[in-house]
ABC transporter-like protein (Tanticharoenia sakaeratensis NBRC 103193), 264 residues
Amino acid sequence: MGAAIAVRGVTRTFTLGARSVVALEAVNLEIPAGTLVSLLGPSGCGKSTLLRLFAGLDKPDGGSILIDGGDPNELRASHRIGVAFQDSSLLPWRSVWSNICLPLELAGRTAERADIQGLIDMVGLSGFENALPAQLSGGMRQRVAIARALVATPSVLLLDEPFGALDEVVRLHLHLELQRIRAARPVTTLLVTHTVSEAVFLSDQVVVMASRPGRAVRTIAVDLPYPRTPATLRSARFHELCDLCSEVLFSHASGMAASTGVQE
Ligand SMILES: Nc1ncnc2c1ncn2[C@@H]1O[C@H](COP(=O)(O)OP(=O)(O)OP(=O)(O)O)[C@@H](O)[C@H]1O
Ligand SMILES: [Mg+2]
């Protein structure tokens, strides 16, 4: 079962020379175990920063993040977090197969051949098991990163724009696969996306963020029934929810040009 995540008053400010950039200001979130929550927001609103805090790769300046009541570092140390970050960061000297096996090796676990092949088939890379990352397209590399994030059956899955470079057909296929995997084993999932329809299709909740300073402005519950199918994309409720998310997103984007968010 996935882990519950509680974010209380989280603040993260970066210093760039004499200036400071408020990447996250007083973010509060409650993420129930086993749910999928999307972070939707404009470039620079702190989505990746928040994901790095969840992954235990960075620390907030103020506030707290608790995963099942513990520090994100504990979960990271026990290899229970699966991550696919924006720059897929595959190891260039390792094949597709061996990149996907990496989290298991780090956790001191042995790879089941059938499981690895199953993941490779799922992300549509059969026949490319021995290819090196440089021999793949950008979208194929992203699919390797998704398979790698899932291989160790994590309690928390952190996906930073994992479907960004994929064509529409592959994207929908992977949306349905992710849903299938999560139905079998409800891993708590944080998905960063710029795409409103993707957020609504996949999520239990959409957290709309705004920038300068980076903050969570509204959480929208997605009450579409499961399983979500291609027919969901044509339903009236799906379109209503997309419109609502867009409205919130754009209502907070209007002042963007006027404000730099940078404090001297
Ligand atoms: N290590 C860092 N040092 C200095 N500033 C940083 C650092 N990491 C992030 N920032 C700043 O924090 C802000 C938020 O960055 P972040 O990468 O979280 O945005 P994002 O929402 O993921 O954007 P995008 O959609 O473009 O990926 C930006 O203004 C960025 O310049
Ligand atoms: Mg980012």
User: Anything to note?
Assistant: Residues 14, 16, 21, 23, 41, 43-49, 86, 214 surround adenosine-5'-triphosphate (ligand 1) (CB under 6 Å).
